């Protein structure tokens, strides 16, 4: 289980700082710092750093093996994220769906794609014990 005194850090490539800030702020993330070559966000309580690196953009991203995101422990928070992404017209890589229907690990999920083709998954498990 997560300890509250720790923050997860993830660094990803981006191709343009302006469009990156636009996307992540529309997603509800707070811009923490900005430099000439990177931006840092409060990503739902964790730290995501987007490094300007247009030569490292995945032109044909796939969900597996590389994506990142949030597992919500409350359905209302998942619903709010989905509603916000829809309202802000963020680009979906995969529309909302249910995975592992009828099994203990059943969960609701959707994927967004950021301007640098990084894939973000948002999910909610009906059984919170399956979150890990």
From TrEMBL:
<dbReference type="InterPro" id="IPR004360">
    <property type="entry name" value="Glyas_Fos-R_dOase_dom"/>
</dbReference>
<dbReference type="InterPro" id="IPR037523">
    <property type="entry name" value="VOC_core"/>
</dbReference>
<dbReference type="Pfam" id="PF00903">
    <property type="entry name" value="Glyoxalase"/>
</dbReference>
<dbReference type="InterPro" id="IPR029068">
    <property type="entry name" value="Glyas_Bleomycin-R_OHBP_Dase"/>
</dbReference>
<protein>
    <recommendedName>
        <fullName>VOC domain-containing protein</fullName>
    </recommendedName>
</protein>
<feature type="domain" description="VOC">
    <location>
        <begin position="6"/>
        <end position="125"/>
    </location>
</feature>
């Amino acid at each position: 289980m997560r300890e509250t005194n720790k923050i997860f850090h993830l660094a990803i490539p981006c191709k343009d700082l302006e469009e990156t800030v636009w996307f992540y702020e529309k997603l509800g993330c707070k811009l923490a710092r900005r430099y000439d070559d990177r931006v840092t966000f409060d990503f739902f309580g964790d730290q995501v750093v987007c490094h300007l690196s247009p030569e490292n953009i995945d032109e044909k991203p796939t969900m597996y093996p590389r994506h990142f995101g949030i597992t919500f422990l409350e359905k209302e928070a998942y619903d709010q994220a989905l509603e916000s992404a829809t309202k802000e017209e963020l680009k979906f890589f995969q529309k909302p769906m249910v995975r592992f229907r009828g099994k203990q690990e059943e969960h609701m999920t959707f994927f967004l794609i950021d301007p640098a083709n990084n894939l973000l998954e948002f999910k909610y498990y009906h059984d919170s014990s399956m979150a890990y």
